[in-house]
């Protein structure tokens, strides 16, 4: 446990709902008006807000990245990716067509299925690359007490490790997930700096297995009743004729599946939170500065659930009010441009005139935009901020006296910023 | 220093009015703040600071979008990475009132030039790939695709289409009657005799009120019952059919599918996941598709004129049909003509009339009155 001596710095959180809601609404509206171009500035502004709200030991963090440099990074990424992705997709489509048939056998069906995921594998290395570069960019623009954070340029090593560990985790049905989580975290942390001080991730991957507890329980709920059911009926009998299960009490197996699924979903959050707790405990900065970060699974699930319900309720309420008003106006215009029976449109009995078609498209688009805009703006306030606040408040810096000896590091310019992450849409939540 | 205005409480026990970080070490320096109106400077002084620091008021910048209005981070370009953190509302707001250029952003020299260069590069790269490389590549690949693969692709597309139109089992929307089928065969034969086609042309009439017809990869052509009923003579239908033959021979549908596959993901990447991205995506995709397609339509029209001429049929009825469609459904205005794939019905009608080689001379009707009636009744309505 954290010892709250003078040598321990608590992390405070100073954000409040009102200014964040204002910021998030304004940036969302600007993003829509500019057809998405403002999203780089929007993200930079939200980061500035969140960073400045997190105040370890009373000194706020600072985010010094700008929308302009993010935009430039995006342009650079697009200039390269347009060619790569365009040719890749067309090539894969042709390759897919060459083995295209009507999938009459199971094998052909599987082949088609695999074909659809080839695109994904072809951009997977790019995704790991973009993630590492994105993180490095964010760190280089993060300051605390006037000192920059930083990460070493090592994205290529991250690509093959990311792919290897993900593959291992996949083929072992998740049993090696702690290996993936730990090794990737260690790779990143060991290359992370605060000023002249280097971070280190200590410990080993098997220490994350206790965090898997609830995933395991969920899996047992799903497997045990089903196996017991088949064993009770007799493996050979089921193997020969699946229908013998009809008379078995299979309600138990279904119940197990439902409970197991729910338990597992909670288990995933539990794994996320507890692997974070364990790894935080084993992080060291500059040899002797340590950390304690103890967020709670129940709190995190509660924030997500309540926040999602709250934000969608508010978005629906305001959204329907706004669109209701707009709908009245549109209906008026529609009547002028000739009456239109919406029902007959769907059956194909009448075709809308151009004007009516445009009006319908406009109102549907506006409804979608308004709902989306309000939801995302409120989700920032009702989900993201409480989460960040919880993580911040549960984190302490131990043995903080050592911080005083750390000095500034050189800037890391990174002209391309996190352009690849933006272009591939694999940026972090922030 | 009689004119100095002290901010906060001087020499107060910590916390003092400000905290200073020099940007070189992580040491915190508690500082007192005083403003000289005469020299327009902010004086930072503290026990651990050594000499006092003077910040010109005009140069002071505030870190924007700060979460807490009562606290603020200030910087001064002369001191680079140095930061002044103020943690009480009163001091922060007084300092804000005194500094005129807090919000000025100091954009690096040449930043806009770099943006312009890369912006041009990005746009050029996307335009090149979407409008030059992908269409050229798609055309090459479409021609290299073996015919039997194209037919298999067409069958899959047909099935999806029928599902989309509300069909439950394959083929249950297709219309067929003994006399209607014969009439359709007669019309098809007269036109297809003029073409050297690697495909087995399969023409289907679907029971749907849409006034439309199209070609599916691999020689499948779909006529909607609505179109047959809308036409006032069999030559009009023959014109449409000849046009669709053009699409089949030119492999337009196959090429189009490849082009879409190449450019769709690209647009998603450009527009990001912001609200409304999907809507803009649809429109842009439609724009690109339509621009690919307008050329294909013009080519198919020319093809149709030639086929009709060699079959000794007039192409003027085809023009008349275009005008009829315009009358019934309205032409599209100029702005919209970029969004639809069959634009400018007037122009296409004129071209069809101009290409007519039969004119007032007599011709053997493509279907006689009985056969025409049978075709119109193929869906039993």
Structure description:
The complex is a heterodimer of chains A (430) and B (381). Chain A is α+β, with helices and mostly antiparallel strands and 430 residues long. Chain A has helices spanning 17-33, 39-53, 67-98, 106-140, 155-171, 177-189, 213-233, 235-240, 251-281, 297-336, 342-347, 354-393, 419-424, and strands at 9-13, 54-56, 61-63, 142-144, 147-151, 192-194, 197-201, 283-285, 289-293, 395-398. Chain A has a 10-stranded antiparallel beta sheet. In chain A, β6 (192-194) and β7 form a beta hairpin. In chain A, α7 packs antiparallel against α9. Chain A is globular, with a radius of gyration of 27 Å. Mean pLDDT of chain A is 82; it is low at 343-349. With 381 residues, chain B is α+β, with helices and mostly antiparallel strands. In chain B, β4 and β5 (53-56) form a beta hairpin. Chain B is rod-shaped and about 110 Å long. Chain B is 49% helix and 13% strand. In chain B, α4 crosses α11 (369-376), α6 (234-249) crosses α8 and α7 (252-271) packs antiparallel against α8. The model of chain B is unreliable at 273-277 and 332-336 (pLDDT under 50). Classes of the chains: A alpha+beta (430), B alpha+beta (381). Chains A and B meet through α1, α2, α3, α12 and α13 of A and α2, α3, α7 and α8 of B.
What's the helix and strand layout?
The complex is a heterodimer of chains A (about 425) and B (about 375).
Chain A: E1 9-13, H1 17-33, H2 39-53, E2 54-56, E3 61-63, H3 67-98, H4 106-140, E4 142-144, E5 147-151, H5 155-171, H6 177-189, E6 192-194, E7 197-201, H7 213-233, H8 235-240, H9 251-281, E8 283-285, E9 289-293, H10 297-336, H11 342-347, H12 354-393, E10 395-398, H13 419-424
Antiparallel strand pairs in A: 1-2, 1-10, 3-4, 4-5, 5-6, 6-7, 7-8, 8-9, 9-10
Chain B: E1 4-7, E2 18-21, E3 29-36, E4 41-45, E5 53-56, E6 61-62, E7 72-75, E8 83-86, H1 89-98, H2 111-144, H3 147-164, H4 178-192, E9 202-206, E10 213-216, E11 220-224, H5 225-230, H6 234-249, H7 252-271, H8 277-310, H9 316-329, H10 345-354, H11 369-376
Parallel strand pairs in B: 9-11
Antiparallel strand pairs in B: 1-3, 2-3, 2-8, 3-4, 4-5, 6-7, 7-8, 10-11
Helix pairs in contact in B: 2-7, 4-6, 4-11, 6-8, 6-9, 7-8, 9-10
